[in-house]
Every structure is written in structure tokens, then in C-alpha cells.
Sigma-54 dependent transcriptional regulator
Amino acid sequence: MGTIDSIKRDKLNTLINTGLLINSNYSDLSVLLEKIVESAMMVVEGDAASLLMREEGSEHLRFEIAIGPKGIEAKKIVIGMNGIAGWVIKYNKSVIINDVEHDPRFDSTVQDVTGYKNRNMLAVPMRIKDKCIGVIEVLNKVGGKDFDTDDLNVLELFANQTAIAYQNARHYNKSREEIICLQDQLKQDKGYHTLIAKSPVMLEKLELCKNIAASDASVLILGESGVGKELIAEQLHLHSRRVNEPFIRVNCAALPDGLLESELFGHVRGAFTDAVSDRVGRFELANRGTIFLDEIGDIPLQLQTKLLRVLQEMQFERVGSNKTITIDTRIITATNKNIEELVAQGKFRSDLYYRLNVLPIYIPPLRNRREDIPELADFFLKRFGKEMKKSFLGFSADAMDMINTCPWHGNIRELENAVERACVLGTPPYIERKDLFIKLGDEPALRTVEVKPKDLKTAVNDFKKNHITGILEKCRWNQTAAAEILDIQRTYLSRLIKELEIKEN
């Protein structure tokens, strides 16, 4: 009697612990479901167990979970709806079968592939709002025993708990995606929504943004790298009816071709080797809002067809799925490339270009709107000065003259970097000409050159040498002052100067 009571207590404890599981961590749904199914198998004393889910939009079942001697092999198999699991889904009913091979519903596909013989089994539906979305099966009761109605009732309890866990995880993941979407917007720098414009040409562009923001027509923003194309895209969103909905940014050049499709359209679990769970793509995240596709000229040809369909029909499928998803999204694109030239070269679809180029906006380079340069420089100085806790009043006359005469081939991005560097090296109250490491004339301040690859030690020493030299020059080669800025001992600085062969010019 004591042994029986002990077994009952163990089963009860397993049920209680499983109940606690459904309120645990939902970040890895597969692990959670596997624990629940494994607990169910133990309680009803089975030798193997599985959770089968119906693939969306198809007549196939896949093994979400497979536990037992041949579980790994079973997970690779996709079966049809003509077997016992398919019958359970179709009729939304549980079954006990103690002579599987003679049951007319039995499909021997898994048994033939794995070699694992199915003697008897339980199969119960996993329901959400009375709709069967999957089946839990437990196979071969240990000791050669038959399954009974008590086993079936217990397994149905586990199926209910599994359904709750599955639904909770879906809600959790949806909330997580919404949080990611919000974080994507909040990650932007302070003052990101401020578009500095004083030149007549940029004031005209801002007015154009306000006029076309109400339309859902596609906008193609053209201009050199660093001119502020993303800020123009954001202005279009901020002045539109979608202002309270997501604004999703995607840099098409920043992702390898193999990942870009999944990033844009999402994927389902098992779509490719690393697809361990479903993923929502950027287009879905941008539903009801705006998606900004930067560097659209870099999108590979094989994806251009899929993007064209989104523009035409607002529909697509996740990678690995045949379920069509419909969205309502404003599409804004940008490029620094000549798309017409790419079309002529056969690298860009002409029909896609015409769809994207409904409302083109050209943003001129900074050198062609010099009225904006002092305003932008002051804006960046205030921002970086605040971040670095330095109270700069502005630029000296010589420094501002240098800023105004620079060609700024890198546009706003180059100006921003120059001001940030000056804030690091400069001392309040004013940024001086010597704090600005910018190149005047027709050449850009920074050029890309081919260099021989360095080992890590050489690269680190080069960095140390350049950094220490810059600080020493700033301090007029006063080693005591330089050591204080570098926050190191003067004796250590002297040693570094000797080791790195730093010499005063």
C-alpha cells in the first residue's frame, strides 16, 4: 500500500511541477514544451512521447518534440494527415490504442524509418479555444502493460497545460517583438528627431516632406553617403498619419545576402539550419507604420522580385512558409547609387525601380548648402559637450572659418565626427583651430587606402603611439600634463614614449 501511495505522490508532484513550468521562462519555447511532454511520458509510464504540430497552410505534421530511443531520427520526419495523429486533429478527439498495428488509422512511416516498433499508444489533442493545433502522443507503456482511461485523462491534463504554455509563449514573443520595435526607436541619439536646416534648398526639402507625408506612395531618397537621407525618411514618418506606429530601419548593405531575406520577411522554424524558432521579419514589425530601406541599391536580384510583390500587393511569405501575410506599410527607400545605371547593367529590376521612384527626393551634399554647416557644427558641439561634461561656448573665429571652408566630402557624418573629436581634444570655453583634425582643399579628410594587414600587437602599439602623440601635442609636450589626461603615472608615460619611439616634431 505504501509503494502505491508513493507512486501516486510522485505523479502528483510531477503534475504540480509541470503546472509551475507554464509560468516559467518563455524565451526558449522548445525546451519548455519538451519538459512538459517528458513529464507526461513519465506520469503515464510510456517509453516514448512526441508533440506533433500541423504546418500552417499544409496537410503535413512535424515533430515539434520527440522523446525516446529514436527521438532524434523522428524529429527529421514529416508525416501526412492520414495517420492516427491526423485523425486526432481532424476530429479533435483523444484515443487509446492498445494494438496499434491492427488499427486502420495506423501510418507506419515513422516506424519504417526509425525501426522503433509502436505497440500501443495514447494520442490527445492540444487545444487553444477548442481548436486543435497539435497532438501529444505517448507510446509503449513500460512493462508490456496496456494504457487505460486513467492514463488518457492524465495525458489530457498535460495537453491542456502544454496549450497554455504554448499560448503564453506566443503572447510573450509578440510582446518581446513590440519591445524590440520600441527599442529600435529609442536607441537613436539624443536630438535624433531634430533635422537642422537653414539653407533655402533644405527648407524646401522639409516643406516637400510635409506635403507628401500624407500620401502612402513610395518615396526614393537620393544623395551621397552621409547627407542625412535617414533623417528625411523620419520626417516623412513624423508628419504622416502613421506617426504613432513603428518606424523600422533596415540597412540593406549591412547584412549578407543569405540573411537579408530572413531579416526583411522573417522565417519559420526549420526553414534553414540555424532557424531554431519562428522569427518575425522587419516588414511585419512595420505593419501599420513605415519601413525605411537604406542602401536599396545593394539588394540582391533574387530578393528584388519578392520586394516588388510587397510593393504591388502588400503581401509576402516568411522564409520556409507558404502562408501569405498581408501588411499595411509605407515603404521609403534610399540610396547613394545611380539606380538607372544599375538598371542598364541588369543589376536592378526596372519595374522595381519605377515602383520605388514614385516620389523621388534628392538631398544635395553639404558643400552645396553651406548655410547649414555652422548650424550643424553648433548642434553637434552642444550635444557632445553635454555628453562629455565640457561647457563649450562655441568655436573660435579661426576654427569656424576652417569648418566653413572644408569641402566635407563625407558630408554631415564627417562633420559630426570632426566635432566629436574636437570635443575630446579641446578645452573649454572654445574649440580652437588646432583641435580640428580636418583636411582643407579638394581631398577628403579621410581616405580609404590599401594597407598591409597588421598583427594585433602592432595594431595596438600603433594606436597607443598615435593617441599618446596627440595628447602630448595638445599639452605642448608637457609629460606631467599628458600623464594626468591619460590617467597614468608620469614614469609609465616616459617608458611608453621610449618603447614606442615617440619623438617631438
User: Anything to note?
Assistant: The longest helix spans residues 149-186. The longest strand covers residues 131-141. The domain at 198-360 is CATH 3.40.50.300 (Rossmann fold). The chain has a mean pLDDT of 84.
